[in-house]
Amino acid sequence: MAKETTPNVGATYNALTYGSKIVGKIIADSDFRIDGEVEGDIICNGKLVIGQNGVLKGTISCINAEIVGTVLGDIVVADSLSLKSSAKLSGEVKTKVLIVEPNAVFNGTCSMRHDVEVKSE
């Protein structure tokens, strides 16, 4: 009798943990969480979360983003960008929706419109 396999139907996401560092380009087909350090560009076809200890020096292109840590670079978000109270963001932002909590630091420019187009590869 053949053994049945059950596909994983849970949430799929990728993570870079605290203490890890990547230099280069990241392309993710699903959600991605960064608690380490990235120097380079990220293209994410899902939600990108920069955690409390996360640092990104580069560009971001994604569907949704939540910044809790630090981003030094430009961001293009197709839907919603949320800057939590501990977030530090320096760069140019293009998004449909921008949510900024009190005490978040945002130094740069923001362009908001309904037809933001993200990169894909």
Inertia-based shape: globular
Strand % is over 45%
**Terminal residue distance:** 42 Å
Largest sheet: 12 strands, parallel
Alpha plus pi helix count: 0
Going by helix content, strand content and strand pairing, the class is: mainly beta
Using the CA coordinates, give the radius of gyration.
15 Å
Q: List how many beta strands DSSP finds.
A: 12
Average pLDDT: 89
From N to C, what is the helix and strand string? EEEEEEEEEEEE
Helix content: under 10%
- Uncertain residue ranges: none
Helix-strand layout with pairing:
Layout: E1 13-16, E2 21-23, E3 26-28, E4 31-34, E5 37-39, E6 42-50, E7 55-57, E8 60-67, E9 70-72, E10 75-83, E11 88-100, E12 105-112
Describe the model.
This protein is mainly beta and 121 residues long. Strands 1, 2, 3, 4, 5, 6, 7, 8, 9, 10, 11 and 12 form a twelve-stranded parallel sheet that branches. 0% of the residues lie in helices and 58% in strands. The model has no long low-confidence stretch (mean pLDDT 89). The protein has a domain at 22-101.
How would you sum up this structure in a few lines?
Helices cover 0% and strands 58% of the residues.
Which terms would index this structure?
twelve-stranded parallel beta sheet; 121 residues; mainly beta
